[in-house]
Design brief:
Number of helices: 5
Strand content: under 5%
Helix content: over 70%
Distance between the termini: 76 Å
Shape: rod-shaped
Number of strands: 0
Structural class: mainly alpha
Order of helices and strands: HHHHH
């Protein structure tokens, strides 16, 4: 009982028991934790946005690399031969291919 009587004597008690302040506090708690755009969902959305931006940068770099490779494949026969030998294991008639697998 002593705590309650001391709390009622506090100078901020009448401000905290004001109906507008109580409404504002309830509204702030609702928006922060229970609303459709609460802090947890906003944090998750920001994380997804960061991931999507990283993916976008990765794909932009891949597109640029592929454009460069296409240009070289169209214009440079030595590059075309190197790609054919390395990636598709093509060979000339008088050659043998040895594949070394690192373990």
């Amino acid at each position: 009982m002593n705590f309650l009587s001391n709390f009622k004597k506090h100078p901020y008690f009448k401000y905290l028991t004001n109906k507008y302040v109580i409404t504002l506090i309830v509204f702030a708690v609702w928006v922060t934790f229970f609303g459709s755009n609460n802090l947890l969902s906003q944090w998750k959305l920001r994380q997804q946005l960061k991931e999507r931006r990283a993916e976008r940068e990765y794909y932009r770099r891949e597109i640029e690399t592929n454009r460069r490779n296409i240009y070289f494949l169209d214009n440079d026969l030595e590059h075309l031969e190197r790609i054919a030998r390395e990636q598709f294991l093509m060979k000339r008639d008088n050659e043998d291919i040895f594949i070394f697998i690192e373990q």
